[in-house]
Structure formats: C-alpha cells, structure tokens
From TrEMBL:
Biased composition range(s): Acidic residues: 502-514
GO terms for MF: RNA binding
Superkingdom classification of source: Eukaryota
Domain PORR stretches: 132-459
Protein name: PORR domain-containing protein
Organism: Miscanthus lutarioriparius
Segments of this protein annotated with the region Disordered: 487-514
Biased segments, Basic and acidic residues type: 487-501
Length: 514
C-alpha cells in the first residue's frame, strides 16, 4: 500500500508539474512534499519554477498523463485523486484497488488529447502592422482631385433632361457636388467644360469640347465592349450566387470603366453571358439582379494565374501562382510578422473564382482567398484602386469578412490604403512604380486622359486671360490719368486672385460622391 501511494504521489506530482496543482488532487496528497521541500497544501503552487515549467510544457504534454496511467499500477486512493484530476466519474464498485487500476488504464486509454491550435484569426489579430504613409501614391490620388470635381459637375448637367440645366439651379448645388469654390468661379477656370447662355435666364449645357468628348467616349465603349463584358462577367463569377444586385454594380461602374447605361448598351448585346432578373427602374435603383447565364472557364482565371501562364510560355516551366510583395522604401516588418507572411505565402494560391464554401472563416486558407478576391477586384478597376466603402458593398456576395478592410493594412506589400480626401482608398501597389505613376495601364484609361486634356486646355485659356488682365493693370498703373479704370480692373483681379487662393491645398472635398 505504501509503494502504491508513493507511485500515486509521484504521478500526481508529475501532473501538477505539467498542469498546475488542483485542490482536489493536492489535498489528497498533502502528506508528500515537493522536490524543493515545500509542502503542497490545498490551492498552493509549488513555486515560480513549477509555474514556469507548466507554461513551457505546452500542449504536447497532454500525452504524458496517458503514458503515466498505463505504466503505473494505482491503488484506490490514487484512482480517486486521478479521477478528480481527469474529471472522470467512476462508480463505487470500481474503487477497489484491483479493479480501479484497470478502470483507470481503460479510461486513460479512451482519452483523446485535443491539441490546442491557435486559430488563424487569433494569429492575425495579434500581429499588428503599423500604417505608413506613401507620399507617391497619395500624390497620385491627389492629382485626380480636379478631375473628380469636374466630372461630378459635368455629370449633373448631362443627367438633366435634354442635357440642359438652369444655371441658378446649378449654382445652388455646390455643397452636393463638393466643390471648393463657387460654381461660376469653377467654370471660369475650366471654360471648356460647359457653355452658359446669356442672361436674363442663363442655361448650362455641354460645350463643343465636351460634345466631342462624348462622341469619343461612345466610340471607345463600342471598341472595348468585349473587354467590358468580360470584366462584368468576372465580377459576377466571383460572387457565390453567380449574381449581383444592379444597384451595387451601378455604384461601382465608373471604377471598372462600365458605361452608365450598361443595362441598355452592354447587357443586351451578350445574352449568352447575362440575364436581367427583376425591374431595375429608371435609375437602376430597383430590386433587380444581373445573373450569369453560362460559366466560362476562359474567364475564370485571375490576373495572377494569367501571369503565371505567360511566364510558363516564356520560360517553359509554369511557376506557382502567388502574390507579388513589394514593400515601400523604408518600411520595416517585425520578425513575427515577417515569419507569418513567409509561411502565409507558402500556402497554395486559392483562385477567387473557386468555391470557398468549405473554408473555415478563421483559417489561413480563407485569409489567402480573401486577399485573392481583393487583389482580383482591384485588378479589374481602371486605375487599380478603389474606395474601401464601395468594396464593402460586395461583402455578402464575395464572402468577405466584416473586417476585410484590415486585410489591406495587414499586407502592406500587396496593398496600400490612402487617407486622402477623408476616405480610405485601397491601392494595388504592384500597379504603380516608386514615383506613383500607373504602369499597369487599362485601355479605358484613355477616356480619363482625354477629359483631363479638355480641362487643361480650358485652364490654359483662363490663365492666359488672367495674364492679359495683369498686363493691362500694369499698363494702367504706369498711366496716372486712368485712375478709375485702374480701380475697376484692380477690384476685378483682386476678386479673382482671392477666389484662386481660397481654394488652397485642402483636399477634404475629395470624398467619394455617387
């Protein structure tokens, strides 16, 4: 009996060393002493060394109690302690020493230790990546500020009946259009956008330059209709239901280069790809869906997979599809994050067009699939960037997590999040060079460049007129006999200069407005 008690004491002491003492076990073995000579009383620890050893054992030590139970013949006294420790409910008839030893061995053999695996969500959330500003990419977004302001103003007139809008109505919509200056001042700086008729009732209408641009846009849409149809089909193929609400497509159509009247000019031309279900309404605000008619394997290839196929044609060996990681200059990742990114990149690439219903939301594979979807969506945009709230509209269809925006900052070598304009804009880093110039050019980018050229032409005329007025002011300053004319021109120029300076460098008006 003494020998059996000694074995039980050594067994329970070993278990307490692994897991920390339990009051039920230690109370029954309080007659023994630990190796350090300290009595193991109820609820007491065996010192800092025991706690440290318990923490260092980890999950792998779950297998040791099973080996100990199989290698020791225990008395009834030890079985009670062991059953309390292992949370076993043994009948009273099994408390006899001979039966208890066999029962404990059988019970221990039935114990299947479940290793505690750290979930991917816990690993990811515990690794914080600091956000660092990229001046080159921020400057690229800031350069489009005037373009966005002018496009909103022009769209307000083009969407009016007959493409004509009373000028007094247009001047009252400055806040909705997010213009930094008054509408007349903005049109004076860019006179080639809109034509304003003479009083008493001025009317704003498209200028001859803008009408020529609209003709060019219609020809460009006609030329790249197959590209736009395949792009729209890809967006639908990523969806888990193979359908997208028309309202969500309309909210993001300009980012993907899709025309405003895509339901009339694009969808009916491809009945083998698209099917319109429901009534979209006059302004695409109804309860309608755009479904995919037939799955096309040629379109079900991401940009990363297409790039791997191109390299295979050149080299002869197809590389493994993976993301291009390009950290900005001066960016540093901590060691744990570098190791996590390295292991994460070793995972197989999951196509955004593949079925992801079997992936656990907290698994690293689901994280890789999420990054693949975001990468593919940004690759389909014209400028390889998109505001985050618009991407969030597709969370349900694309099976994106609620905290998908954190994935952009968690992978700074793939994406960049700009805060210019008071709104988050996700940028595909590999599409831009170190100077913030877009190198991955989209065919529909020509439309924006033509519009910007019209704006610059009008602004050049405005500056030339302003210089002529300055020269006239200088001439009248030299002539002392024209004080009245000088005062009149001075007042006019000061008003224009004041409005020019009032615009400033504030870019808070860049918020995305549909």
């Amino acid at each position: 009996m003494k020998e059996s008690s000694g074995k039980a004491h050594r067994l329970v002491s070993g278990l307490s060393l692994l897991y920390g003492p339990h009051s039920s076990v230690i109370a029954d073995t309080s007659h023994g002493r630990s190796r350090g000579g300290r009595r193991l009383g109820t609820g007491e620890w065996s010192g800092r060394r025991t706690r440290t050893a318990w923490r260092r054992r980890g999950v792998a030590a779950c297998l040791r109690p099973i080996r100990l139970c199989r290698s020791h013949s225990l008395s009834g006294f030890a079985v009670i302690s062991l059953s309390r420790f292992l949370h076993l409910r043994l009948p009273r008839r099994m408390l006899l020493p001979a039966v208890a030893a066999a029962a404990a061995a059988r019970a221990a053999s039935r114990l299947v230790p479940v290793p505690v695996r750290l979930s991917a969500a816990r690993c990811i959330s515990s690794l914080k990546v600091p956000w660092k500003r990229d001046p080159a990419l921020d400057a690229a977004i800031a350069r489009d500020r005037r373009f966005r302001q002018a496009s909103r103003l022009v769209r307000e007139v083009l969407l009016s009946p007959g493409r004509r809008l009373l000028f007094r109505y247009l001047t009252k919509r400055r806040e909705r259009l997010k213009l930094p200056v008054r509408v007349p001042t903005f049109l004076r700086r860019y006179p080639t956008l809109l034509a304003v008729s003479a009083p008493p009732e001025p009317v704003a209408s498209p200028s001859p330059h803008l009408l020529a641009f609209l003709d060019f846009a219609s020809r460009l849409y006609e030329l790249h209709a197959p590209l736009l149809a395949s792009r729209l089909a890809k967006l639908i193929m990523i969806s888990s239901t193979r359908a997208l609400p028309v309202t969500k497509i309309a909210a993001a159509k300009r980012d993907f280069g899709i025309p405003d009247d895509f339901l009339v000019s694009l969808v009916p031309r491809y009945p083998g790809l698209f099917r319109l279900v429901g009534d979209p309404g006059p302004d695409a605000s109804g309860n309608a869906f755009l479904e995919l008619v037939a799955w096309d394997d040629r379109l079900a290839k991401s940009v990363i997979e297409v790039q791997a196929d191109k390299e295979a044609d050149v080299v002869g060996i197809r590389p493994r599809p993976n993301f291009t990681v390009k950290l900005p200059k001066g960016f540093y990742l901590k060691k744990k994050m570098r190791e996590w990114v390295r292991d994460w990149l070793e995972l197989p690439y999951i196509s955004p067009y593949a079925d992801a219903s079997g992936l656990h939301p907290a698994s690293p594979e689901a994280e890789k699939r999420t990054i693949g979807v975001l990468h593919e969506v940004l690759s389909l945009t014209v400028q390889r960037r998109m505001v985050v709230p618009i991407i969030g509209k597709f969370c349900a269809e694309y099976r994106l997590p609620n905290e998908f925006a954190n994935a952009f900052t968690r992978h700074p070598g793939i994406f960049y999040v700009s805060l210019k304009g008071g709104i988050k804009t996700a940028v595909l880093r590999e599409a831009y060079d170190q100077n913030g110039v877009l190198v991955d050019r989209d065919p529909m980018l020509e439309l924006k460049e033509r519009f910007v050229a019209i704006m610059e032409e009008g602004h050049k005329q405005y500056l030339e007129d302003l210089n002529r007025k300055r020269e006239a002011l200088q001439k009248y300053r030299e002539d002392a006999g024209c004080k009245d004319a000088k005062a009149e021109i001075e007042d006019q120029l000061e008003e224009e200069w004041h409005s020019e300076d009032s615009e400033g460098d504030d870019d808070t008006d860049d918020a995305y407005v549909q």
